[in-house]
Here is the input.
Amino acid sequence: MRLSRYFLPVLKEAPSDAQIVSHQLMLRAGMIRQEAAGIYAWLPLGLKVLKKVEQIVREEMDRAGAIELLMPTIQLADLWRESGRYEAYGDEMLRITDRNKRDLLYGPTAEEVVTDIFRAHVRSYKELPKNLYNIQWKFRDETRPRFGVMRGREFLMKDAYSFDLDAEGARKAYNRMFVAYLNLFSRMGLKAVPMRADTGPIGGDLSHEFIVLADTGESAVFCHKDLVEMAAPGPDVDWFGDLQPLVNQRTALYAATEEMHDAAAFDAIPEGDRLSARGIEVGHIFSFGTKYSEPMKALVTGPDGKDVPVQMGSYGVGVSRLLGAIIEASHDEGGIIWPESVAPFGVGIINMRQGDAACDEACETAYQALKAAGRDPLYDDTDTRGGAKFATMDLIGVPWQLIVGPKGVAEGVVEIKNRKTGERHSAPLADVIAQLTGPQSGKAA
Ligand SMILES: Nc1ncnc2c1ncn2[C@@H]1O[C@H](COP(=O)(O)OP(=O)(O)O)[C@@H](O)[C@H]1O
Ligand SMILES: [Mg+2]
Here is the structure.
């Protein structure tokens, strides 16, 4: 993309009502624009990152055996009357009436809709297990929308729903999501810790929130330090085999949010290993048995010929919130530092003297080569001065920057800068292109 033809409305200063750094940087980098409280337009740069985050979530869901579908944002109130949640959900639900005076709502979540789809099409245990997910906008009329995309009213969520014949199957489904979550957050450069969460009247131990540690997080959290650095299992696990040991490895160590905190258990951890911090909830998994299938009569016939309500679980990821969480975890005074996996552009090209024939030519060569190699370059071909170009590339967090100036070009070299480390070195253009397009490009400095 040529910056002169792009739409990148960067701001010098963040609006004063943006309190946390991720919100400030998303506004300054021209990623989002607030249209109403907690409702945002996604500008081109923000949308690019959102799509990348979404794609990682999708790939890891697919890998774990979940199947994507797309449910509507507008749902029938009658479905929610069946589950008993229509009144109970309260003011967070945005209720709508259509021209025929039918009660509709903008979905805050989709247990009812997915249960309705399931009961219409699945009858036998032989079709289980199933896990259906979608990545769809949700609306919750939050009392205090704040911190930009962290707590919006309209937000993008991945929500998956598992269906199993019995409790044992449900636990396996839960474990698959647990492991998939470890992998997907890790692919975005995040250290997300699974923490015991409240199961309410359902009981049991099958509810975890995945928490990214950050001072600006909304929840107080407590955990064993080792959990933070524990590496994700990676893709090569036996997804339909026994994942319990992988899960146990984590759940054996103490980790809980404030609501579930057990001070005595926490104090039993050696003092040096205790971590008391704040965190951002980026995902939440919950196995709730027959909570919806029973009132909504989603029954399956078991091997004994008897009909039983199907065992369900739901698994959410805050896709739009993740952008805020990633920025909270990865930024400096200059702006955002995107991990390569979600960066909006792979390489930035800075032409220090636009209009100088040699500089223009070197930039053009680099631009074409990087584009051909799929590195999605952003070429700053505007006639802004060099300092401002550096500031913009740093602000929007492009991981690699190729700097082309008249002095270097005269000597046959350009500069390459790593956004994360700040390291810069000069090399012939061809070498820099080879480095940025080679098989290890983006990984090695
Ligand atoms: N208002 C919101 N804005 C952005 N993301 C949200 C919001 N509410 C929930 N999420 C994300 O969706 C995920 C699943 O939602 P859920 O656990 O049902 O929400 P909650 O914990 O608020 O009841 C959460 O882990 C969080 O990452
Ligand atoms: Mg939650």
